[in-house]
């Protein structure tokens, strides 16, 4: 057992946890103690990694009392909690955030100085936990941050991948993936609890048996149970999720897979070492590596194993360990709402049914009534190919009991559809949780929609399209089930930590406290007309640009010019996001200068910065990366455009780099094909850091534009209805190419091999796709994009006007705090009576 062992009458059992002194001297002593007793090294012998690890652990000491106290408070006064189920948490570095949350930055800095150490150097030692791919994973990290800051009881549940998102390197301009062994030098932020491991079954078969109903009636009931063929252990690792200077520390509980028996001793003794460790390797593979796919499903068995593994651990953890003992499970929904972050955790729904029925003796109807109140589903995509489906064959083999349950849920659900829409068998087929073509498979989004209390999209437009285009039959049947919660980002990490100069200016101007009440940024609005403020604002931007130049020089050996606009496009590499449109703009500018159509001196100097990882199996995305790097190398080496056009593509864009890049940006590129980007969250981070957006009418761009105003946002391109109309009419990209001379010259220059060492073949994949396929209508939006980029230049030439707009972007973007998103989730989904 793992229960407390100390007699509760012993005063030590309830004594408050010690808080280390918040003084420079106290911190220094705490640090030395950790270095000596924790790391087991003397200061004079400590490596930089020792120094970093000891510092991380020292900072933890300052959060510990709050962590244990938060847990005690929640245990003693149990209320409804949020169980955030997410296969990804893209956390970013922990140390800066922990120092900010504890407000220990200055103390730590001086304490380390007194020991001859440098805080910034040690902070730079941290390898960020990259346990996510992109927006979806980073969103989860922002949400748990906000919930802690708002003192909302929440456990974040996920997977402790041993290898996170791959480290991207470039070789000859091509992406090469290197494993991200983020834990190899120690994981000072985690608390493993191997004694609290949970067993998770897989495979095998189900059987039925008869037993007494147990209600005193003497009635016999038939029950089912699952007899798994193999199992693994889930070991919980706890991470602190500190609120912002509020004494609250919530928990992130990530599961790591272990073999149930380390290895088969008998085989080992017989000398077959490989066979002996095979079982162990097999089990531990489950949490070995994050699937590096962003918005395309990876139909691998291991992925379903990962999904089931972490939700099975999490549900068991909540019911057996977190919930009060003997709590009546018929009222489970009074204690928990599990938020399903996309379809990855949706297998939790049949798992909950199985637990309630097979392990806790409920009847089907009772279990279903409870389950239906315990889950809500967030959809993060509009790409039909990104909606996960799992082959029935696979689910049946891996999770036979769950498949039975899914079938029965579907049967009963389809009956209600037939009742509501008699004779409409086509509709029944569309809505079925099981699809028949191209193969029999479980539609996870349908399952989540049937079982969930609510289904939400992540921006207004996305939620609308979700209702109208992705799940129209469901929204017709249950209009009230559908709602919107526009994404948000945490101002603590993405303003305070990322942009100290702007943060200081904001605090000097409107006072403290905006970090948790971001709508207060609106009081900056009048300062757009204040010349002195504008000067300071522009100076902060310059300082951030300088910081970026210095970083890229050291990190990537990239030399950036001192002057000009910093034009940034950072996000996963995907065709729908249209990095190629950005590339065509650059190539077109370049072509116009070298061909003498445009005088170099009349061009607004720009530094174009890309950051993007491509999924390793996504061929086209990797070709685009290669082309961007090729264009960058050619342009940067060409004297004819020196100082006017510069292209930088630092490798391995991650949260750490984002924190340096975003505050330095003048222009934010949000140029997806309208109707494809569910929300975007980078777009919000840029606006909040005073970049102007050039963007399509897509995702949360729509809301950004509405809030900052048309004058402070560069809109271009087709909107979603226009896209749909063009699609219906028939889109012929080669016709656009033929009819637009500027576009033709840009594409021809690429096709000629100019950027690829004269080799036309090396550019052909991308060029041919643009000309003959162009699924995301890049060429259709080209001219509009070029025209509006002209307006961008014009405004930029008037620096006063630009700065005014940038200030208004900051002042009017307070809505995009993830604190506001959390309030919306609370009001619309989790606790509808909450205010
Ligand atoms: C969407 O593509 C959105 C994030 C967070 C992504 C992006 O537009 O901002 O989710 N979806 O909601 C995704 O990663 C797997 O799907």
From TrEMBL:
PANTHER family reported for this sequence: GLYCOGEN PHOSPHORYLASE, GLYCOGEN PHOSPHORYLASE, LIVER FORM
Pfam families listed in its UniProt record: Phosphorylase
Presence of keyword Glycosyltransferase: yes
Top EC class, one word: transferase
Protein name, entry field: Alpha-1,4 glucan phosphorylase
Catalytic activity: [(1->4)-alpha-D-glucosyl](n) + phosphate = [(1->4)-alpha-D-glucosyl](n-1) + alpha-D-glucose 1-phosphate
Reported function: Allosteric enzyme that catalyzes the rate-limiting step in glycogen catabolism, the phosphorolytic cleavage of glycogen to produce glucose-1-phosphate, and plays a central role in maintaining cellular and organismal glucose homeostasis.
Record-linked Gene3D superfamilies: Glycogen Phosphorylase B (3.40.50.2000)
């Amino acid at each position: 057992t793992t229960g407390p062992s100390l007699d509760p009458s012993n005063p030590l059992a309830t004594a408050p946890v010690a808080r280390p002194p918040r003084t420079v001297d106290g911190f220094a002593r705490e640090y030395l103690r950790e270095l000596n007793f924790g790391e087991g090294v003397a200061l004079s012998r400590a490596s930089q990694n020792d120094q970093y690890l000891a510092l991380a652990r020292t900072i933890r000491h300052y959060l510990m009392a709050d962590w244990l106290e938060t847990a005690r408070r929640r245990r003693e006064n149990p209320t409804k909690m949020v169980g955030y189920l997410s296969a990804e948490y893209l956390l970013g570095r922990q140390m800066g955030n922990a120092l900010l949350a504890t407000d220990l930055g200055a103390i730590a800095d001086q304490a380390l100085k007194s020991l001859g150490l440098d805080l910034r150097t040690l902070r730079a030692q941290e390898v960020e936990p990259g346990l996510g791919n992109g927006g979806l994973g980073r969103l989860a990290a922002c949400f748990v941050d906000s919930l802690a800051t708002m003192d909302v009881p929440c456990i974040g549940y996920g997977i402790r991948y041993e290898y996170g998102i791959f480290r991207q390197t470039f070789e000859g301009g091509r992406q090469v993936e290197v494993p991200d062994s983020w834990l190899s030098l120690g994981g000072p932020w985690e608390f493993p609890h191997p004694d609290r491991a949970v067993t998770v079954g897989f495979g095998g078969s189900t059987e039925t048996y008869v037993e007494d109903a147990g209600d005193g009636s003497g009635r016999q009931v038939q029950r089912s149970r699952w007899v798994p063929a193999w199992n693994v252990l889930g070991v919980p690792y706890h991470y602190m999720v500190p609120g912002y200077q509020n004494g609250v520390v919530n928990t992130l509980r990530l599961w790591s897979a272990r073999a149930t028996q380390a290895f088969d001793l008998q085989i080992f003794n017989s000398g077959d070492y490989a066979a002996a460790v095979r079982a162990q390797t097999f089990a531990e593979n489950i949490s070995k590596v994050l699937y590096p796919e962003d918005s395309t499903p990876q139909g691998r068995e291991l992925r379903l194993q990962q999904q089931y593994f972490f939700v099975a651990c999490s549900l068991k953890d909540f019911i057996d360990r977190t919930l009060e003992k003997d709590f009546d499970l018929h009222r489970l929904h009074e204690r928990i709402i599990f938020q399903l972050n996309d379809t990855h955790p949706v297998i939790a729904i049949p798992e909950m049914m199985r637990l309630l029925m097979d392990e806790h003796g409920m009847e089907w109807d009772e279990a279903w009534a409870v389950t239906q109140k315990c889950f809500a589903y967030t959809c993060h995509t509009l790409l039909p190919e990104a909606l996960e489906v799992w082959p029935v064959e696979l689910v049946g083999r891996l999770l036979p009991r769950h498949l039975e349950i899914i079938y029965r849920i579907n049967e009963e659900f389809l009956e209600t559809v037939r009742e509501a829409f008699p004779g409409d068998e086509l509709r029944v087929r569309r809505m079925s949780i099981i699809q028949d073509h191209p193969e029999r498979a479980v539609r996870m989004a349908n399952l989540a929609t049937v079982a969930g209390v609510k289904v939400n999209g992540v921006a207004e437009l996305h939620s609308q399209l979700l209702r109208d285009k992705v799940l129209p039959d469901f929204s017709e049947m249950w209009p009230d089930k559908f709602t919107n919660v526009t994404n948000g980002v945490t101002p603590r990490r993405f303003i305070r930590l990322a942009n100290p100069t702007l943060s200081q200016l904001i605090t000097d101007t409107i006072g403290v406290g905006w970090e948790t009440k971001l709508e207060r940024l609106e009081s900056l609005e009048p300062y757009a007309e204040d010349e002195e403020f504008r000067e300071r604002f522009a100076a902060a931007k310059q300082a951030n640009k300088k910081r970026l130049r210095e970083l890229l020089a050291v990190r990537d050996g990239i030399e950036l010019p001192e002057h000009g606009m910093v034009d940034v496009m950072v996000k996963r590499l995907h065709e729908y996001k249209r990095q190629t449109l950005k590339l065509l703009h650059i190539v077109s500018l370049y072509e116009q200068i070298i061909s003498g159509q445009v005088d170099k001196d009349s061009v607004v100097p720009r530094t174009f910065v890309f950051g993007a990882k491509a999924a390793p199996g996504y061929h086209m995305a990797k070709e685009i990366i290669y082309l961007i790097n090729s264009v960058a190398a050619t342009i940067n080496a060409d004297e004819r455009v020196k100082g006017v056009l510069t292209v930088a593509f630092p490798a391995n864009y991650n949260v750490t780099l984002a924190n340096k890049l975003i505050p330095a940006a003048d222009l934010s590129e949000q140029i997806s094909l309208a109707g494809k980007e569910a929300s975007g969250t980078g777009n919000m981070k840029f606006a909040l850091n005073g970049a102007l957006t050039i963007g399509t009418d897509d995702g949360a761009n729509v809301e950004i534009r509405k809030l900052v105003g048309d004058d402070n946002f560069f809109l271009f391109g087709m909107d979603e209805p226009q896209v749909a109309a063009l699609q219906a009419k028939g889109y012929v990209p080669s016709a656009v190419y033929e009819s637009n001379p500027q576009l033709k010259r840009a594409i021809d220059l690429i096709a000629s091999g100019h950027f690829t060492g004269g080799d036309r073949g090396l550019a052909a994949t991308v060029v041919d796709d643009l000309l003959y396929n162009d699924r995301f209508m890049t060429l259709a939006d080209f001219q509009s994009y070029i025209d509006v980029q002209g307006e961008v230049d014009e405004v930029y030439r008037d620096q006063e006007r630009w700065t005014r707009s940038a200030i208004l972007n900051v002042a009017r973007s307070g809505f995009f705090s993830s604190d506001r998103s959390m309030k919306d989730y609370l009001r619309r989904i989790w606790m509808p009576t909450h205010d």
